[in-house]
Fold this sequence. Notes:
The chain is of the alpha/beta class. Helix content is 44%, strand content 13%. It has a six-stranded parallel sheet, sandwiched between helices. Strands 11-10-9-12-13-14 form a six-stranded mixed sheet. The chain has a two-stranded parallel sheet with strand order 7-8. Helix 5 runs parallel beside helix 6 (136-144). 46% of the residues are buried.
Amino acid sequence: MIKSICCIGAGYVGGPTMAVIAINCPKIKVTVVDIDSEKIKRWNGPVENLPVFEPGLSEIVKKVRNRNLFFSDQVDEAIKNSEMIFLAVNTPTKTSGEGSGMAADLKYIEASAKKIAEVAINDKIVIEKSTLPVRTAERIKEILHEKEGGPSFEILSNPEFLAEGSAIQDLYKSDRVLVGRDETKSGRNASKKLIDIYLNWIPKEKIITSNIWSSELTKLASNAMLAQRISSINSLSALCEKTGAITLEVSKGIGMDHRIGKHFLNPSPGFGGSCFEKDILNLVYICQHYGLNEVAEYWHQIIKINDYQRDRISNNILKYISNNNTASILGWAFKKNTNDSRESSSIYISYKLLSEGVKLKIYDPKVHKHRIINDLINLNKKKNQLSDELILNNLVVCKNIDDALLNSDIIAILTEWEEFKNINTKEKIIDTRNICANSNVVFNL
Ligand code: NAI
């Protein structure tokens, strides 16, 4: 039985997944490490200020931190002392070199594998938790086995399917746990050890095994299929707006067909989050690599529709800009119940509005002011259409919803936080889920 686990990467995946393992497996010592010492300080600080906000997370951390869950920046020591190591580091899109703008950047994964090869003195099971291109395990194996006569390593793929905003619930009640492994005796042994951990709280029938490549590809494909549904309904929202059909009514009618199902059929200002776009780009890149150009183009279209939808919503908002030249942006997180704003549509829509000379009043219940400003400044580094000064002078990040609603031409609800559902104001409202449906639903309450 495994007694010690280490997770490299204390982010949105590493933190919550290890907290849930720790609370369900009190006999296993779980250490989450990160090279970002500031982040580790916050994981070890007051639970109200953890680097990741997820409903239910702080309660678990309170119970198990320093019992069998530890956060540390001492990466070498944690690797040495663990039998099983999860890799939960980030895998962003490459920004330079071959595959720039499309392929996954594996530098953090490779650095972690090199670190394990360098410091490990006994055998380890190494688990891919990060989302990776199909056949990455091969590269990890190469790195780990470079040192002749060193300890032996078994690689497993165990992709994470949690959704931010409901991560704890998802981890407790996973639809499935997927373990990819080599069809060898040692591969099967390693996978059994990992499955034994999950069996502490996941029913046996929800745990499935596959070969490593299937497991890696399943994760990319799952994200692509989810994003595809969002782009499908968003593309239809444009047609609804032209024809007088109402998207919410159409999506309800579609979703009640049990063959289709109702999830991921709400129109929106476009999907955000750190995963969908980068994982689809990665999928497109892999297809192109294998010469499957039609397949690549099929999946690429999902991102094109997403960009189109963000642009379309920005233009819809611009139509209502008049007296004050000011818009209220409600919601910065890419979805409710998270403090994560990576790739949020709010960033893109706000940037477009700023570039049209609109002044913004922005409010989000969980995203800090410095993050909102950084998001816009970082996008400007890529687009280079505005001066940073203009951005800073034309936006106010508000501390509460009332301030955000004062004196603006239009209120655009871009994240569906609960507190935005019952706004009582005389201002005009755009709930983007409705404006997609029908431009007449901009209304005065
Ligand atoms: P994140 O950016 O929140 O966390 C990654 C952490 O890894 C960072 O804190 C970074 O400092 C750390 N790190 C990078 N290199 C390191 C190294 N050499 N040694 C120690 N620490 C290192 O990323 P997030 O969102 O947790 O994602 C991690 C992976 O999980 C990605 O591959 C992502 O695609 C995947 N994933 C993410 C989901 C999500 O909802 N965020 C859901 C499912 C999978």
